[in-house]
């Protein structure tokens, strides 16, 4: 969104200068951020003397899903908790636990059985 401002060159002149920052609403700013994306990066370091005690690296990307996919970020597609694979993983986990319990029971029975010569 652009707005126009009158120039001071001549009172009779109605030429205007377009600016991109004035007159933007919150919706316009949000649309622009989601369309283009925004990156916030910073490093925080706490030191005493010459000894570094704490170091935090912050990287934040805000964008729309389409823009993120466009730049190669799509981790949510392979995250099992965000995709439909969570239920399959839970079932596989329950089957494996049942199999482990069965094997442990069989092992205990074999250890408890008297040895036959």
3D structure, described in words:
There is one protein chain. The protein has 117 residues and is α+β, with helices and mostly antiparallel strands. It is 38% helix and 26% strand. It contains 3 helices and 4 strands, in the order ββαββαα. It has a two-stranded antiparallel sheet with strand order 1-2. Strand 3 and strand 4 form a beta hairpin. The longest helix has 28 residues. 0% of the residues are buried. The N terminus is likely disordered.
Low-pLDDT residue intervals, each spanning 5 or more residues:
1-7
Largest sheet: 2 strands, antiparallel
Mean pLDDT: 81
Number of helices: 3
Radius of gyration: 31 Å
Beta-strand residue fraction? 25-35%
Secondary-structure element series: EEHEEHH
The assigned structural class equals alpha+beta
| Strand segment count | 4
Spatial strand arrangement across the major sheet: 1-2
How widely separated are the two ends?
92 Å
- The percent of residues in helical segments reads 25-40%
Describe the oligomeric state of these chains in a short phrase.
single chain
Shape: elongated
